[in-house]
């Protein structure tokens, strides 16, 4: 058709990787041009001028067709390729193999026998495929889509009351859209309009053409002077189409300034920045394995979303539509800077963002920058677990803020927590109080220590053994004494004291607070029960007894008194092994003492230490 003006073209690559061009002309002709040698391989004709050509294919690649739009508004479909039946348009191209066989014989002689046999098989298959197509064309079934006579010419699509059909590619699959103009209803189908719609959208009334992406719908108006961006999520509608267009689904509009300039077409621009950013993020994760709260947006480990935009071709120019700001960055700005949670939620719906994850990330940024109240509010909005909120607050190392929140959680009856969660939170409070006492001195230390002791005395939900060990390691001896007297943790205190004495961090022999804890009278029974711990403590007392002041010596005399009720049974059995047992209990005690040499040694050391302490006390008293 050299005498006709070409109006549109589309590139078609067959499944055998043949590169062809389909060209639509003003007289209604459609030509198939080989891009390899420029030959015209075939043609067909419709009644009106060809205004647009679109390639359509299903997700299984079983069928490739051409959607033809005419200037009169009619649409045609031409089957180009069907691998399952061996069909390829135009059918005459298969028959042309016979005419070209002779010209290729000379070249075939130069090939090996194997290659010649392979080519021969392909020629035979091509002929058999042609015969199958001709047999199918003689089938009496007029509605069969495999009919060659129907394939070789464009099929007029039914004009369903101003319905515009178009192929789309979104959500990682090929789709087929049908736009019903009278009601502005868009239905999206899996393969063709005969299948049930997957999605239904309500669009503005003046929509002319549209481009569907994963999250956005780009439309042009009837005047071809404006491009509208519509949210696919917010524009969803019932199939009946009774609902009105949701004005909140309209995100933005771009109008051409020049009235004479018209939009020719809108093409998808695939977002490839996601693949480029993936490598740098993986490298950053490898370098940072320690969990810390993010301080800036760049520190957040949130997976970026893919946003496909479009290229707009007009009669004068080509425009590229870009996203000026990342939706994630915009979300964080709306929340942390403007505190506009409503707009942030709207943004999350438009771009299918994980609302809870983003709210929690915003809370992380606020917490790390000292805005604890707002950060905790966002954690609650994000429905983060209570223990997770406490742990993130603990990472900031602000013990006062942590303790304030912990006390609020433990004292409130409205907060529903499991027993394990309460214990974990209480343990964090123990460590936070310990840190506060160590960090500040003077009056603040006295206040913090008093609050710590009140917490340990009145609170029930914490690991008491952990509290003893932490207090001993931090040298909070008043706290250790409190736990021994009020919580009945004398065995744990004895074990912790013996471990401290055996380390390089043993307190000085003149440390008054340590000596007060070590000489606590309530530890007597636990000393006798645990011989290994008792021997370490008694050895320390005997070594440093001459450095102890009088008041400490008096406490040791009370603690080590062998006549006290807790020591009398063991001491008496040590000196009266032959005494006849008068009861079952005394018999068992005698047997235990006789069968445990270490117990006898400890009792003997217990009495000897008492005598040494008493002698030291008498000596210092006489000197005074």
TrEMBL record:
Bias class Basic and acidic residues marks the residues at: 126-135
The biased composition feature labelled Low complexity covers: 136-151
**Taxonomy, superkingdom:** Eukaryota
Disordered: region residues: 126-151
- Its protein name is Uncharacterized protein
């Amino acid at each position: 058709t050299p005498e006709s003006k070409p109006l549109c073209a589309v590139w078609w690559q067959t499944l055998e990787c043949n590169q062809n061009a389909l060209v639509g002309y003003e007289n209604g002709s459609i030509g198939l041009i080989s891009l390899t040698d420029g030959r015209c391989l075939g043609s067909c004709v419709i009644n009106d001028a060809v205004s647009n050509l679109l390639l359509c294919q299903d997700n299984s690649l079983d069928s490739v067709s051409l959607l033809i739009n005419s200037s009169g508004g009619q649409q045609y479909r031409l089957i180009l390729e069907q691998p399952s039946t061996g069909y390829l348009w135009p059918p005459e191209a298969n028959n042309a193999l016979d005419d070209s066989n002779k010209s290729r014989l000379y070249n075939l002689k130069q090939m090996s026998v194997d290659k010649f046999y392979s080519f021969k098989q392909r020629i035979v298959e091509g002929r058999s495929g042609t015969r199958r197509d001709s047999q199918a064309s003689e089938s009496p079934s007029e509605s069969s889509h495999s009919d060659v006579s129907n394939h070789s010419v464009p099929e007029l699509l039914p004009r369903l009351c101003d319905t515009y059909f178009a192929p789309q590619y979104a959500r990682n699959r090929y789709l087929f859209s049908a736009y019903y103009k009278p009601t502005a209803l868009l239905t999206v189908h899996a393969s063709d309009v005969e299948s049930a719609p997957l999605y239904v959208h309500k669009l503005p009334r003046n929509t002319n053409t549209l481009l569907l992406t994963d999250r956005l719908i780009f439309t042009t108006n009837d005047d071809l002077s404006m491009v509208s961006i519509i949210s696919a999520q917010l524009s969803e509608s019932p199939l009946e189409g009774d609902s009105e267009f949701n004005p909140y689904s309209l995100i933005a509009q771009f109008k051409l300034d020049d009235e004479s300039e018209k939009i020719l077409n809108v093409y998808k621009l695939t977002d490839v920045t996601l693949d480029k950013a993936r490598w740098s993020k993986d490298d950053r994760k490898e370098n940072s394995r320690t969990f810390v709260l993010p301080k800036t947006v760049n520190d957040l480990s949130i997976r970026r979303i893919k946003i496909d935009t479009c290229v707009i071709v007009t009669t004068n120019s080509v425009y590229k539509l870009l996203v000026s700001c990342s939706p994630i960055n915009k979300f964080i700005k709306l929340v942390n800077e403007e505190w506009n949670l409503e707009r942030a939620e709207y943004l999350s719906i438009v771009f299918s963002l994980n609302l809870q994850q983003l709210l929690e990330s915003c809370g992380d940024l606020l917490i790390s920058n000292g805005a604890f109240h707002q950060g905790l509010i966002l954690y609650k909005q994000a429905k983060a677990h209570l223990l997770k909120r406490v742990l993130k607050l603990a990472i900031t190392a602000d013990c006062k803020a942590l303790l304030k929140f912990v006390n609020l959680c433990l004292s409130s009856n409205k907060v529903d927590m499991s027993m394990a969660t309460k214990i974990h939170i209480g343990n964090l409070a123990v460590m936070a109080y310990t840190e506060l006492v160590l960090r500040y001195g003077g009056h603040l230390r006295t206040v913090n220590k008093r609050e710590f002791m009140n917490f340990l005395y009145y609170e029930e939900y914490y690991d008491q053994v952990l509290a003893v060990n932490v207090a001993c390691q931090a040298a909070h001896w008043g706290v250790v004494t409190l736990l021994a007297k009020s919580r009945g943790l004398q065995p744990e205190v004895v074990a912790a004291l013996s471990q401290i004495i055996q380390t390089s961090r043993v307190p000085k022999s003149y440390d008054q607070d340590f000596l007060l804890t070590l000489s606590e009278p309530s530890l007597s029974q636990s000393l006798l029960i645990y011989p290994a711990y008792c021997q370490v403590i008694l050895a320390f007392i005997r070594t440093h007894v001459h450095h102890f002041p009088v008041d400490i010596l008096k406490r040791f005399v009370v603690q080590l008194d062998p006549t006290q009720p807790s020591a009398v049974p063991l001491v008496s059995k040590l000196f009266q092994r032959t005494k006849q047992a008068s009861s079952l209990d005394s018999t068992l005690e005698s047997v235990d003492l006789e069968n445990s040499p270490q117990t006898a040694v400890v009792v003997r050391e217990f009495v000897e230490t008492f005598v040494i302490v008493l002698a030291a006390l008498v000596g210092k008293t006489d000197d005074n």
